[in-house]
Amino acid sequence: MKSLISLEEILKRKYFDKSEVVVGKEILYRRQVKWVHVVEVTNLTNLLKGRELILTTGLGWKQDTDIFHSFVTQLIEHKAAGLCIEMGTYMNFIPQSIIALAEKHHFPIILFHEEVPFVEITQDIHSILINKQYELISKLENYSQLLNKNLLEIDNHQEILTFLQEYLDMQVVTIFNDNQVEFYPNRSKPEREELLDKINQSNNKDDASIAKLPVLILGKRFAQLVIVTNNKDITEFELLILDRTATALAQHLLRDLYVEEKKMAQESEWLTSWLEGKYSDEVLHDHISFIDPKLVIQGGVVCVCKQMTIAHSRDIDGTYFKLLFRTVLERYGFYLFSTEIRHHVIFIIGDKRPADNWKERMMAAFNRLNKDSSGRIRMSNVSIGVGKYVHALCDMHKSYETAKETLLLQESLTKENSSYFYDDLHMYRIIALTKKHSNLTEIVNDYLEPVIAYDRKYNGDLLKTLKTYLSCNGSKQETAKKLFIVRQTLYHRIDKLENLLGNDFMSSERRVAIEFMLVAYDYLTTSKNNKLLQYNRV
């Protein structure tokens, strides 16, 4: 099956019985035609897309060899299938330089020594091409229907690949990510090795007897599907069949993964006990070895995910979310166990690589999730808290507690101060602890009330000036630049701050306390706004 027609087939059609092939007779069977153009102009830059058969009388150049040479050069550069020239009207012979140019580039030139009806030639060939396209589409649709019917009945992916092999009657090879290779039909060991060598070598050269397609699931390549022919080019139809099969195989594998994820969710009791710190390191390693003998995990973190309550947002499919999360993070060297506790999705994330860059890898995974998420999952609707990294699996409960704390802290932080990671929250952890055991608002007022009251009364910017001045380490020039004010205005504000806070507010110990209270003030303000926002949503 192919949607194109070769020059060899065209020469057997009506009006070509008395034609003469002056260049390219030995390659006519390889030159595929997808359309026919009648051309009498000499500038073809915007006319050709490739594989066109050109019919001409030579009107555009007549006896001008230079223009004729430019015309043929353009056809070669734009990968035209060939050139047919009607002799006698404007041309009586083909210059030797043109023949040499065509022979150099293996470009067929065909001559009509009698007048022929170009219109009828184009109608004849176009009807063949259109019929071939229709037949190809019909065959492809028939294959798709048969494949979809089989998908409802099959139990394993091998049946899909066997169906492909029997339909195309060619060698099918599937190379999975774990280097497992399957052959349909199966071959002897020497034959398998020879086939794999041929497939690997085709990466470095253009081999039309081999076609490959990745089998993608949630953006990740799970396998590569390959078809191999014996000394013939793979047709467009066979490529389309390969594409449909790769999609069907991905759907089947995704269904298996979905079922596996569901099963893992049902078997999560031991994960809950792990998060509660009930298992020793030895027991956990034994259990993991039972799941996968090759899996080695030396440490990791716990990640707690919570869907944020947003008006008109639909609930997230938990199983699909866990599958997507797992698929992305595994690319960055992690192994995931997942469970759900009180409407939170919990991931125990084991690290299969050295721990020195775990946070960078995890951040890259979160960025990929944010970039790729759409449709069924929107990561902007999910709040994520990652606990501290632990090196002993039996300490994973400590990471779980800090992950929950991180999630709670995020509700009281501005977007620019927020972070997925417990390790990044530094001062906010101390502030939360202070708030828990004392009246944090009263402590903040002890230090900042004069400035807050002044701004409230005069609609001023002293608090903002104080934050900026401290962040610039007392540099007046840098502070004025960041606040977009002149130096004199800044001097006036600093004088006012000294009157309100005391002349020693930039001394070492007092400055540290004020900086801490500024962060605490932001924390309290954001927390208050979040609670008000949640109240309004309810």
Automatic annotation (TrEMBL):
Superkingdom in the source lineage: Bacteria
Protein name (Swiss-Prot/TrEMBL): Transcriptional regulator, CdaR
Organism: Evansella cellulosilytica (strain ATCC 21833 / DSM 2522 / FERM P-1141 / JCM 9156 / N-4) (Bacillus cellulosilyticus)
PANTHER family: CARBOHYDRATE DIACID REGULATOR
Transmembrane segments: none
Protein family membership: Belongs to the CdaR family.
Domain CdaR GGDEF-like, residue spans: 323-407
PucR C-terminal helix-turn-helix domain: residues covered: 462-518
Ranges where the Purine catabolism PurC-like domain occurs: 9-128
